Amino acid sequence: QVQLVESGGGLVQAGGSLRLSCASSQATSSLYNVGWYRQAPGKQRALVASLSSDGATTYADSVKGRFTVSTDNAKNTVYLQMSNLKPEDTAVYFCSASFRWGMGAMGPFWGQGTQVTVSA
User: What Å distances lie between residue 62 and 11, 48, 57, 72, 79, CA to CA?
Assistant: First the structure.
């Protein structure tokens, strides 16, 4: 079972920045794809950003130009750099990852989430 542990959330003022981390017990060099999701109170969990094994990234329209997803394979960690934060970015943020396994893939695995609160 792969463990994913998010950290880096907190309270920040609008316009500020945070960097979320997702530490993986499985080597991130074997990532098949990884996504950052968020869930605000009363709303469904939604994909914010994703990164695939070929390096391709996707971003929700609401975060394009403000959020960046990246990995550090030396630390087996995936990051979500968030800048120019807005109150509507307030949510619990989750990472989810699948990994190459033999000829296929295993996952997705989910972390426990980290709270991001942006004050106006």
Answer: 20, 8, 15, 25, 18
Sign of CA dihedral 117, 83, 98, 29: negative
- From first CA to last CA, the distance across the chain in angstroms is 40
Report the pLDDT value the prediction gives residue 106, as an integer from 0 to 100.
Answer: 94
User: What residue type is assigned to position 106 of the chain?
Assistant: M
- CA-based torsion, 39, 43, 48, 53: positive or negative: positive
- Of 19, 13, 17, 23, nearest to 112 by C-alpha is 23
Report pLDDT digits (tens) over 27-39. Answer: 999 999 999 999 9
Please, which pLDDT band fits residue 41 given cuts at 50, 70 and 90? Answer: very high
What's the rounded Cα separation, in Å, for the pair 73 and 97? Answer: 14
- Alpha-carbon distance of 73 to 14, in angstroms, equals 31
